[in-house]
Amino acid sequence: MPTTDVLVLAVARQPGGLMIAGMTTERDPVTGLRWVRSSMSAPLALDDLRYADGTFVRPGDVVRLATESTGSAAPHVESVVLDLEAQPVERVRQLSDERRAGFFPAHLDTDPSAVIRERTRSLCLIRPDYAHAIISFDEETGRFETRLALMSGKLRSNDEGIAVADIYWRALARTWLGDEPYVEIDDADLQARLGDMYVVIGLNRKSNPLILGVHTVPPYEATLDEDAL
């Protein structure tokens, strides 16, 4: 199985475990660079994403992976199998703040409706014109949830927003929630806290949209709790 270097743009929860997604160095006429995502039929464990030094894969890392296309039908055409025994995740480098500032605007999806409306592929990178965060914790069920209501060009989520599966954003949102059961953070407050945001939207197994990655320049600080992803 050949190896390829992947700029990680999403580390996210999925049923049964975790997934990662990112862009390779291969050119793509629509997205700029070719997207890949780990197969949904082979969820990853957190230890699969642990480097030899004990730290975890983060968005902005460039990692070396052994990948092979699954040949999946639309929309999950980016799906690949990872051979983590032959090639455990290896960090090649990290994207500097300067390169992040140039990368995200240069690689915005030119046709996100192909993902969100037409479902011909399953991953896109957008810059929201508006974002509103909704964070909640149900003490009875123990369910923590964070969502983002977004508007980007002609695309708009409903007022309830789109669920965020990005484990680093979820960690940040937990700190914002604190001991409260429910918090909303409006666009102006998000902008003041984080600056411009870039969002990776992906389709789940049922082809419903999820937010798989949330990016800022410089990256926001978030510490993972391995027992509460």
Overall residue-averaged pLDDT value = 96
Q: Helix tally?
A: 4
What proportion of the residues is helical, as a percent range? 10-25%
Q: Tally the beta strands.
A: 14
Give me the side-by-side strand order of the main sheet.
1-2-3-5-4
Estimate the strand proportion.
35-45%
What global shape is seen?
globular
* End-to-end gap: 30 Å
Number of domains: 1
SSE series: EEEEEEHHEEEEEHEHEE
Can you characterise this structure?
- This protein is mainly beta and 229 residues long.
- The chain has one domain (3-216).
- Helix content is 14%, strand content 41%.
- The chain contains four helices and 14 strands.
- The strands form three sheets. It has a five-stranded mixed barrel.
- It is globular and about 45 Å long.
- It starts with a strand and ends in a 13-residue tail after the last strand.
